[in-house]
Design brief:
The protein has three helices and eight strands. By secondary structure, the protein is of the alpha+beta class.
């Protein structure tokens, strides 16, 4: 099912569309899979107090975060009939419009991937110690509040 040792899910900077495409393409040979579902978290150019966000700088307690990602992964495999799962999160600066979170799940059946993906993303937001510093166009910054 999964490795027992937590994997490093972090990628420096934005998650490139080429990386996402290659990850999907690698699953075409796995013929027991009937459905995939993907969540792509993208940095929004929100306006806070009249100032547009140009980027978010992500930091994390990496060992603790990787352990939490691992625990969420294990729980999802126990709760849902998944064939495979990939989670990647950015560290460092990610500009507005770029991808910062990539979650990819596969299963023999479509209903499982919908339920599993929502569960995984909500658990990541609630449990994983990843922090974002919003960088505004005027080069000021503030810590992001999770919503």
């Amino acid at each position: 099912m999964t490795d027992k040792k937590p994997k490093n899910v972090f990628k420096q900077g934005a998650i490139a569309s080429e990386f996402i495409g290659e990850s999907i393409a690698k699953h075409q040979s796995k013929t027991s899979i009937g459905a995939h579902n993907i969540f792509l978290g993208q940095v929004r150019a929100d306006v806070v107090d009249g100032k547009p966000i140009s980027a978010i700088e992500y930091t994390a307690y990496e060992d603790m975060a990787n352990t939490k990602f691992h625990d969420i992964r294990e729980a999802a495999f126990e709760k849902f009939n998944l064939t495979c799962m990939h989670i990647y999160h950015s560290l460092g600066i990610v500009k507005a419009g770029e991808i910062c979170l990539f979650v990819f799940v596969s299963s023999p059946r479509r209903k499982e991937v919908f339920k599993a993906l929502e569960y995984i993303v909500e658990e990541i937001k609630a449990q994983v110690p990843v922090f974002g510093k919003e960088i505004f166009e005027d080069d000021t910054h503030q810590w992001k509040k999770n919503t």
